[in-house]
Amino acid sequence: MWENAIIYFFVGGTVTTLIVVLEESGFRLLSGLAALVPVFTLVSYFFIGASKGGNAVAQHSKFVLVGTLVSWVPYMIIVTYLAPKLGPNKAIAIGLFAFFLLAFIFLLIIQHYDLFQ
Question: Quick one: 34 exposed, middle or buried, by C-beta within 10 A (0-12, 13-18, 19+)?
């Protein structure tokens, strides 16, 4: 288990560093491309698939897809709209609040209706 955690840590840290360095170096398109790479699900699905199989990956990917639409898309819209008006820190804080509120509601609904099992 700890070997996997170390891999997650290095992959996530590497991609995050790459995104920031590319943006700071003026390579906005490459930075954006790196930010679009689904690192967390990519690594997670390899390990979920190896331990639980394809059906578990499919169920998890459905959960993540719907959760993304419910919580991550509104977060990005809020940050996009508010960052020029309030600055990035306030926009991100408000966006994260909305993200976690919507994600919590989403999880309650998922649990109540026993979805994505």
Answer: buried
Q: Which pLDDT score is estimated for 12?
A: 78
Sign of CA dihedral 20, 29, 96, 38: negative
- The answer to pTM > 0.85 is no
For the beta carbon of residue 71, count every other beta carbon within 10 angstroms.
19
Closest CA to 93 of 82, 103, 105: 82
pLDDT of residue 7: 79
In 16-68, beta strands by DSSP E: none
Contacts 24+ apart (CB under 8 A), 34-41: 39/11, 39/12, 39/15, 40/8, 40/12
- CA pseudo-torsion sign 83, 8, 52, 34: positive
